[in-house]
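Appendix B, Record 12. Input sequence as logged:
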Amino acid sequence: MSPRHELDARRERAATNQSRFREVNERIEELDPVSSFVEFVCECAQRECTKHVALTAEEYERVRRNPNHFFVLSGHEDLAVEEIVARSDRWVVVAKLGAGAAVAEQLDPRQRLSE
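Logged structural output:
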């Protein structure tokens, strides 16, 4: 496999993993939409990650406005497959690159519901 195809495959896997975490977080928000802070699952590409990220409902919605954005703990970003687009003192927002961006948008639960 060429280096370009390997990178695309890695980006697609990362976007798929992160989309699974995002799916869980959509359910968490449905259960507790009014608390000042909600403990969401870190949406990083590390399959074994079990860390939580505290966000307000407003912060969560701000990240979710873009189907290609994910929130992760600082240090959990993977700059080979994503770029940092925003920071807070508790988390960073990453956007998928290349082939991963298309996968993130395709797997976005809100996009599927609106179809």
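Strands lie at 38-41, 52-55, 69-72, 82-87, 92-96.
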